[in-house]
From TrEMBL:
Name this protein carries in UniProt: NAD(P)/FAD-dependent oxidoreductase
Domain of life of the source: Bacteria
Cofactor: FAD
Domain FAD/NAD(P)-binding, chain residue ranges per copy: 5-325
Entry's EC annotation: 1.6.5.-
Keyword Oxidoreductase: yes
Organism per entry: Bacillus kandeliae
Amino acid sequence: MRKPKIVVLGAGYGGLMTVTRLQKMLGQDEANIVLVNKNDYHYETTWLHEASAGTLHHDRVRYDIDSVINRSKVEFIRAEVQDIKTAEKKVILNSGEVEYDYLVFALGGESETFGIQGLKEYAFTISNVNAARQIREHIDYQFATYAMETEKKEERLSIVVGGAGFTGIEFLGELTNRVPELCREYDIDYSKVRIYCVEAAPMVLPGFDPELVKYAVSQLEKKGVEFKIGTAIKEATPEGIKVAKGEEELQEIKAGTVIWAAGVRGSSIIEKAEIENMRARVKVNPDLRAPGHDNIFVIGDSSLIINEEINRPYPPTAQIAMQQGEVCARNVVKLLKGQADDLEAFKPDIKGTVCSLGDDDAIGVAFGKKMTGTKASFMKKMIDNRALLMIGGPSLVMKKGKFKFL
Ligand code: FAD
Ligand code: NAD
């Protein structure tokens, strides 16, 4: 008898959780499991700000997919997904195509530029290992070039971070630890470096606990960050950015490096595949399937689920993507077993949020308790280690885990 084919797209948090659970729940003769990913490695998206600032080597934030999948049960295809033909149950890859009976879409999200001019050309985004490596190298290059040139261009040493959401703030935490090292390395006076954070909303980390936000801002200001709050980036240029406060005139900030960390949307493949979506995110049914597609699950940053208590979408996080992966795997198995009427409804279990401020500091709320400093930083590392444990078990934690607590 022909075995049903489950194709999982993306080896990020959602995809790997699904596959590692499916390979435990299903025997070799019960299904063909296929995993498709662009690279033969998984990267910890939640650690990319560290690799981007250069405080953690990029090899520390990734591991081989082979080290966590059971190749006797899972076929791995290293390829780029280009489109999905839902009527033909087919995924188009850059190197061919793959058919499916059940599809799990877990390709993550993409940077949202809101159509702002010049961002795609002149700003960097903290989006994957290649991007992180490029950001680190670019900042290094600016410092090295400044040290070399006779007519010094001070703006080379200016770095703008657009967006004071969690990504922007975590990156600033790492950057302010890295810049003093760079200054020593290139014999540059630290006072020449300018680090700006431009945030359109009236506060840093909009919606987060104000007391914790105050702590974060004060810590980052002490390390030299200049916050421009209630100020929106309107354009990026080869020289830097143009910003405006409310209806005021545009102002220019010259900078050698611009990092755009002002939001995410779903995967453009969702839009191409013409699956009903909002900014490339699919408002999934409670069982995580795409409306109108009984055999397609969408999880992670490309899914949209509403927090009924406040009637707003949950922010896309690794925490949710991993929890969805577990439920998705169980629901796929139920479908295989003919239990379509008994699918599990997904409900996020938010354990807290911790935002790092470099390797040695953080703010957060976990299990209902607020924390700052080394305690919060310890908690953040435990969360990072837990993600490794959930996907790759204790051996992966030993290989890639974070154990420097002071
Ligand atoms: P991802 O983990 O991004 O994985 C998607 C995978 O699909 C990747 O392997 C990618 O290479 C692959 N892929 C993409 N497109 C294609 C294609 N066309 N073909 C083939 N393969 C493809 N969340 C938290 O909960 N806690 C945190 O502390 C936290 N910190 C963060 C820090 C940073 C700097 C950033 C950027 C995000 C952070 N987040 C955090 C958010 C979190 O990383 C995402 O919500 C999470 O990664 C989403 O998981 P996912 O499985 O949907 O996608
Ligand atoms: P975000 O949407 O959370 O924050 C983006 C910020 O950019 C917002 O504060 C917004 O007001 C601002 N912004 C938008 N347009 C702007 C403009 N033109 N000029 C200036 N500022 C502008 O995005 P993010 O920080 O990239 O986070 C993405 C997701 O990842 C979120 O769900 C977040 O919760 C999650 N995340 C979590 C953690 C963590 O838990 N530690 C860390 C990083 C990211």
